[in-house]
């Protein structure tokens, strides 16, 4: 749907720019206006402004380059190559790098149209470039500028669901029968989550950019203020994803601890196995579904640590492993609370 909308916006901006250049400006080279309009319509309002500026400068430099070469050197094969060379070299300037190639492409169009012999029309060509940029920016601002908050939320919720399911699977396996080889499968699933986090960060960055200069953001904020009497802060998906990423890191440490614990099944303390498995299962349920009705995880872990420390039958050699498992789950429990708070903030915003 987003791609189709972007195509329609490009068509609308270019067509409107073409009409203005032919019907209002009576331009002899109306292609410059729709050409720059196409260059200006981007996925976000912010990019339309920033890239629109670059397109204006690049296209203007291309027109100027064509004028200088056509007026003083003539339009020949070698001057055409010279214009391309200069345009491509200038396109590497850092402040127009994204749209710098428009210098060379504009020179191709203008020189190919015989502009070199029409020096008095330089100002008209520059006006046409400006018209294309204006139409591109206006269309992108007015015609449903995109917001990617929903896509970012889907990524975050999907990762949370996978984390919760993995914790629940680990709890069931650890409570029923412990197989060290299962940790390898858990590590693989964690690696998949980390790949999803990388993709999620791209979506989050785009969501942030899509809100910059976007009238939909300001319009919805004003509507909320009128309806509720106060402005609601938009969810910061960057902070949410940082907490999710941190949770995955602690989950990875938890899995590594279990993988390196070379115990036979009977060597685990049964009281610890039972209570810790229940806490891990509830933590997974809370991450996968923040609305799930589970007892507070962090307090139960503290009680477990205190009870195990007071058990004289607990071998001293087992505490490094048990302590690492409890500590990792305490970190994850904090993430559980943050995930639930973040979900509530997103839904109210």
Question: Taking Cα atoms only, what radius of gyration do you get, to the nearest Å?
Answer: 30 Å
List low-pLDDT spans: 218-234
Q: How many structural domains in the coordinates?
A: 2
Query: What letter string, H or E per element, gives the SSE order?
Result: HHHHHHHHHHHHH
Number of contiguous helices: 13
Q: Gap between N and C termini, in Å?
A: 24 Å
Largest beta sheet, briefly?
Answer: none
- Count every beta strand, where a strand is a DSSP E run of 2 or more residues: 0
Mean pLDDT level: 76
> In CATH's first tier, which class of the largest domain applies?
Mainly Alpha
Instruction: Tell me roughly what share of residues is in helical segments.
Output: over 70%
CATH fold-level label of the largest domain: Four Helix Bundle (Hemerythrin (Met), subunit A)
Based on secondary structure, the structural category is mainly alpha
Any guess at the CATH architecture of the largest domain?
Up-down Bundle
| Beta-strand percentage range | under 5%
Global outline:
elongated
Question: Could you explain the architecture of this structure?
Answer:
The protein has 349 residues and is mainly alpha-helical. The protein folds into 2 domains: 2-142, no CATH class; 149-348, Four Helix Bundle (Hemerythrin (Met), subunit A). The protein has helices at 2-24, 32-40, 45-72, 77-90, 102-112, 122-142, 149-176, 182-211, 215-228, 237-260, 270-288, 297-309, 319-348. Helix 3 (45-72) runs antiparallel to helix 4 and helix 4 (77-90) packs antiparallel against helix 5. The longest helix has 30 residues, at 182-211. The protein starts with a helix and ends with a helix.
